[in-house]
Amino acid sequence: MSKATTFKRVEAEITAGDLGKARDRLEGLLVTYPEDLEIRRRLGEVYLTLQYPERAGKFLYLEDDHRPAVAKAKDIFEGSHHRDPLLVLYALNYRGGLEAIAGTHAEAVLRRLLDDARIAQNKYEWYVGPKRADGQPPVTFNERAATFGCGAGFLVLLVLIFIGAATVIGWALALLK
């Protein structure tokens, strides 16, 4: 389903008062399009309507929106992370890469957080999640470890199957003698 089609469904669900379904659709869409600030904004608006200010603050944090309800939500979000810029940066979980937000208010907000956290600008991409050439986030250590573990487990399983088959064949031959 395309992003435009999903947005239409979300709008219909919001109009029908089914905010939970709209929220779930937007959360799923954000996984597919992590660089899309419009999805974050719409998701923040849904959370604001649902009266979850901390979640609303998370998704509206990168927006240049100064409405009192949004400012309060952003403040609650920051407070829930002890106003620590690094914790706020991690909690934002923006994974779109810098090139997707160059020249926007969102980039300025993320750079301010990094400056406040005293993180070197050359490590910035690591914190906001650079993308591979295929547009996906980089493979993490845990993903590599899981892949290695599954591969090793599969090899052990193959060895055990071979040993089991050899044992059964040995018993069968012994019975035939």
Please render the helix and strand layout as text:
Layout: H1 3-16, H2 19-32, H3 37-49, H4 53-60, H5 68-80, H6 85-92, H7 105-117, H8 124-128, H9 141-176
Helix pairs in contact: 1-2, 2-3, 3-4, 4-5, 6-7
The number of strands is: 0
Q: Note the run of SSEs as H and E.
A: HHHHHHHHH
Radius of gyration computed on alpha carbons? 24 Å
Major β-sheet profile: none
Task: State the end-to-end CA separation.
Answer: 65 Å
CATH topology of the largest domain: Serine Threonine Protein Phosphatase 5, Tetratricopeptide repeat
Unreliable residue runs = none
Helical fraction equals over 70%
Q: State mean pLDDT (0 to 100 scale).
A: 87
Q: How large is the share of residues in beta strands?
A: under 5%
List keywords for this structure.
2 domains, 9 helices, Serine Threonine Protein Phosphatase 5, Tetratricopeptide repeat, 177 residues, mainly alpha
Walkthrough of the structure:
The chain is mostly helical and 177 residues long. The chain has 2 domains: 3-138, Serine Threonine Protein Phosphatase 5, Tetratricopeptide repeat (Alpha Horseshoe), CATH 1.25.40; 141-177. It has helices at residues 3-16, 19-32, 37-49, 53-60, 68-80, 85-92, 105-117, 124-128, 141-176. The longest helix has 36 residues, at 141-176.
Summary of the model, kept short:
This protein has 177 residues and is an all-alpha fold.
